[in-house]
Specification:
about 270 residues, alpha+beta, 4-stranded mixed β-sheet, 6 helices, globular
């Protein structure tokens, strides 16, 4: 829905905890592989509420990450204790409430409305008899909002091309025409993958500094970056409800193939 030049997107949570808080980030990926949607609960919570986990049910892992500030024994020039920042990473095993007995289901969290600038890309007029892609407003609004913030990033949606890539040196993303894809979701999967790469530019998250240019194909740095880009794409499609069986299977296979190259950092995910 377009309101005053903005696109309003309603995002309905697909995974949430017992407190009704939606899971986000990598937890969407982790829980998506469980085959369940909806509410999740820890074994301890289930037992505390008088319920039980069905025999044979499998747990999924979710993570909690934060940065906390803590005092040190060192003093600054004013005699105050210096502070340091400590990263905190915890993980929990959770079960779908569907796999539990003796529990009362709680209401799902309310959908939330997100606003993005309405800047829809227009392709050239289609040739006679040529199909017109059904562009997705939510995806287009996210792309427009990101490209505006990432200026001077350049995005080229080619008329016809077999190439999809991000060039760090030129800070540009190139993708083929949407009409070349059998599903519009696959087109957006490719586009979000390449935009995911662009977040690593020196003017943004600066992920390429350690590679000192283009990392060798198949190297750990290259593999890590491919995982970042594909997981970015998969999470966005899932969040806006565009994920299909094909896009999920393709992303899962892609991530599995590149994850085999990550040897030195098993906690990277």
């Amino acid at each position: 829905m377009v309101v005053d030049g903005w696109t309003e997107i309603t995002i309905t949570p697909q995974f949430w905890n017992r407190a009704g808080k939606p899971y986000s980030g990598v937890n969407i990926w982790l829980l998506g592989a469980s085959g369940h949607r909806g509410e999740f609960i820890t074994f301890t919570q289930c037992k505390k509420e008088g319920g039980s986990v069905k025999k044979g049910a499998k747990a999924s892992t979710v993570v909690y990450w934060n940065m906390i500030r803590k005092e040190t024994d060192e003093l600054d020039e004013n005699g105050n204790k210096k502070m340091k920042t400590i990263p905190i990473l915890k993980y929990y095993n959770v079960f779908s409430v569907e796999d539990c007995e003796g529990l009362k289901k709680k209401p799902a969290p309310a959908p939330r409305v997100v606003r993005y600038p309405k800047v829809h890309y227009e392709y050239p007029e289609p040739k006679e008899g040529e199909p017109v892609p059904e562009f997705n407003d939510a995806a287009e609004a996210i792309i427009a909002g990101y490209v505006q913030r990432a200026d001077p990033l350049k995005l080229y949606r080619e008329d016809y091309s077999d190439e999809a890539y991000y060039s760090p040196s030129q800070d540009k993303v190139v993708v083929p025409n949407a009409k070349q894809y059998t599903e519009i979701a696959e087109y957006y999967s490719t586009l979000f993958h390449e935009l995911g790469h662009s977040t690593g530019h020196a003017s943004r998250l600066n992920r390429f500094a350690e590679a000192k240019g283009s990392a060798a194909f198949g190297s750990e740095s290259y593999s890590r970056e491919e995982l970042v880009a594909e997981m970015t794409s998969a999470i966005i499609l899932n969040t806006i409800g565009m994920e299909t069986g094909n896009t999920f299977r393709n992303s899962a296979a892609y991530v599995q193939s590149w994850s085999e190259h990550i040897k030195n950092d098993p906690m990277m995910f």
